Amino acid sequence: MTDTTPGPGADRRRVLAEAAIGTLARAGMRGLTHRAVDETAGLPPGSCSYHFRTRQALLQAAVERLAETDLAEMAERPPLDRPATLDDVADQAAALVAHWAGAGRDRVLARYELVLESTRRPELRTVLEAAANRHRALMADILTAAGAPVPAGRVPALIACLDGLLHGQVAGPDPLPAPELREALRTLLTSFTAPR
């Protein structure tokens, strides 16, 4: 039987950063302690505080791990076809939102916690802003593929709309079923592709 316990150094720091993300998603900012992260990671007590001496260091590691994961995930996504039909783009956008609300749910919840915390800790905002830039680029690609005129000028509004939709899917009492989610996104994209 192979030992799958993470080794010292970078691997252990990565595991702890991912455990911090899971802890944030499950217990919120108040529940994020070194001890809770050790428990989430299944590591001996003191492991987290050994690698991340302060709460600030742990928060920074969680933010950086979110950014790394986002970057890797975006690199794996197939490029959007251009030009694409509005239905194709709505399907791709719906798949993206469904992924963030499903497999990526912990990351979304942790990001909500960290974004709020960054209003009190500006040093977190720098890394969060870098991730936001990648999301803006993805939204510009979606608008361009959908045929939106001047897509960059419409990106902030699309992000605001998608953030609201994603919040409803992740934290709302009544998430939309897949067909309704796709139709909501198609309606949204239609409004963004209409000439001004």
TrEMBL record:
Regions recorded as binding DNA: 33-52
DNA-binding found in the keyword field: yes
Keyword Magnesium tagged: no
GO molecular function, a single term: DNA-binding transcription factor activity
Alphabetized UniProt keyword annotations: DNA-binding
Domain of life: Bacteria
Name of the protein this chain belongs to: TetR-family transcriptional regulator
Location of the HTH tetR-type domain: 10-70
InterPro entries: Homeodomain-like_sf, HTH-type_TetR-like_transc_reg, HTH_TetR, Tet_transcr_reg_TetR-rel_C_sf, TetR_C_31
Lineage: Bacteria, Bacillati, Actinomycetota, Actinomycetes, Streptosporangiales
